[in-house]
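FORM 7B: Structural annotation worksheet

SECTION A. Query
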Amino acid sequence: MDAMTWIRLQWDRVGAWVCVGFGVVVLIAGWIGISNKVYTAEELPYMLSGGVGGVFLLGLGAMLWLSADMRDEWRKLDQIEKAIGANSLSSPHGYQPHPNGSFGRPEESLTALGRSGSASEE
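SECTION B. Predicted structure
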């Protein structure tokens, strides 16, 4: 796989590293700018642009990295679901898929047990 294909497939991981890299550069630039200032009023622009901007970019990078990990987990779960669904549509324990996507035994429904679903009936 060439580099451009990998970058297109892993855009969120690449974006995460870019944001983290720029965040570190911005924090270092802010620290260098603030290190030789005597008055607090001269330090504020560096604190706002360097400190807040750098921390924002680091947080954005972390969010993108977590998003990429979640996407990988969902992809794995989809593969597992397809593998299970390909083997059998119903489980050996009698659980059937319902149209709404949930699973359960048909005889365990509230109407099959004669209950209306309210807790006041006892």
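SECTION C. Observations
The beta strands are 96-97, 103-104. The CA atoms of residues 66 and 72 lie 10 Å apart.

SECTION D. Sign-off
Analyst initials: ____
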